[in-house]
Amino acid sequence: MDIDALRSYRRAKDHYFKASPDSPLTPEQQAHFDGLRYYDPNPDLDLIVEVQRVDEGKPFLMETTTGDLRSYKRFARFTFTVDGVEAQLTIYETPFGFFLPFADANAGFETYPAGRYLEPERLSADRFHVDFNLAYNPFCAYSPGYSCPITPPENRISVPIQAGERLPEGKWVESE
């Protein structure tokens, strides 16, 4: 894990939220925005995982925060350990790449209740790079105008993933 690159990525994301016309924040929120909240970089949660392919052939429908259904394909599952506790997650395939929604033990307390997202990088047929330090909140965490997939039960885990984005807080959140 390149901690300097992670910090640079986070600064660029904060700048996007603060200054971009495409930011998920309203102009009033942008005026008060003082940065997203992140866990400290955690090298132990920057993983190379071996996956077990899931070949169901049928689409998996994931509900969104607005009640819509989006179609995904279950691609693979992987098992990993956090602080001595084993957990398992499913990676989904989309027309745009791979998608890993998850909700951890901190969901609703330290992290967004509907879960956070990752785009794992496929390294080979059965290996992925999964860096939880890049876990991010969906845009619906900042504005009700977005329709975001809700993490399915199979990707709700009982271990805390203390990496990536945390729940937003500050005056800019209150000015929604």
Could you explain the architecture of this structure?
The chain has helices at 3-19, 27-32, 171-174, and strands at 46-50, 52-53, 60-63, 69-82, 85-94, 97-102, 116-118, 121-124, 127-131. The strands form 2 sheets. Strands 2, 3, 4, 5, 6 and 7 form a 6-stranded antiparallel beta sheet that branches. With 176 residues, it is an alpha+beta fold. The chain is globular, with a radius of gyration of 16 Å. The protein has one domain (37-167). Strand 4 (69-82) and strand 5 form a beta hairpin. It contains 3 helices and 9 strands. Helices cover 15% and strands 30% of the residues.
Keywords:
176 residues, 30% strand, globular, 15% helix, six-stranded antiparallel sheet, alpha+beta
What's this model, at a glance?
With 176 residues, the chain is of the alpha+beta class. It has helices at residues 3-19, 27-32, 171-174, and strands at 46-50, 52-53, 60-63, 69-82, 85-94, 97-102, 116-118, 121-124, 127-131. The chain is globular, with a radius of gyration of 16 Å.
How is this fold's topology laid out?
Blueprint: H1 3-19, H2 27-32, E1 46-50, E2 52-53, E3 60-63, E4 69-82, E5 85-94, E6 97-102, E7 116-118, E8 121-124, E9 127-131, H3 171-174
Antiparallel strand pairs: 1-9, 2-4, 3-4, 4-5, 5-6, 6-7, 8-9
